[in-house]
Automatic annotation (TrEMBL):
InterPro entries: 2Fe-2S_ferredoxin-like_sf (IPR036010), Beta-grasp_dom_sf (IPR012675), SDH/FRD_Iron-Sulfur (IPR050573), Succ_DH/fum_Rdtase_Fe-S (IPR004489), Succ_DH/fum_Rdtase_N (IPR025192)
Enzyme Commission (EC) number: 1.3.5.1
EC supergroup of this enzyme: oxidoreductase
Species name: Paraburkholderia terrae
Classification via SUPFAM superfamilies: 2Fe-2S ferredoxin-like
Domain Succinate dehydogenase/fumarate reductase N-terminal as annotated: residue spans: 7-109
Required cofactor names: [2Fe-2S] cluster; [3Fe-4S] cluster
Name used for this protein in its record: succinate dehydrogenase
Protein family per UniProt: Belongs to the succinate dehydrogenase/fumarate reductase iron-sulfur protein family.
Length: 115
């Protein structure tokens, strides 16, 4: 079964953009697109300029957290089945934006204890 979704991504490249802006993508979701990152990687294959982190399951908890429809959520644990047909993706508030869905997490990493 294929379902049509509209994904809006907050885009921002500090080298080119004065302000962030929303870009809308129309995408067909099938049974293989279970979690948000799978759809984002597929979108990146359509528009290579989209910037996102791919560090899920690498032991860096929270590095893929984003704002999904107004809620802070780990993208790798968010099922496409639980989201409505319109999905709005933004970076987490309070952290400096490097580009698109990537924030500077150095202040958070410095709080982790060294082992």
């Amino acid at each position: 079964m294929i379902a049509e979704r509209f994904i809006e991504i907050c885009r921002y490249d500090p080298d080119k953009d004065v302000l962030p802006y929303m870009q809308r993508f129309e995408v067909d979701i099938d049974q293989n697109d279970r979690m948000v990152p799978e759809v984002l990687v597929r979108l990146k294959s359509v528009d290579e300029s989209i910037s996102l982190r791919r560090s899920c399951r690498e032991g860096i908890r929270g590095s893929r957290a984003i704002n999904i429809n107004g809620a802070k959520r780990p993208a790798c644990q968010t099922s496409m089945k639980e989201l409505p047909s319109r999905i709005i993706l933004r970076v987490l508030p309070g952290l400096p934006v490097i580009r698109d869905l990537i924030v500077d997490m150095m202040s958070l990493f410095q709080r982790y204890p060294s082992t």
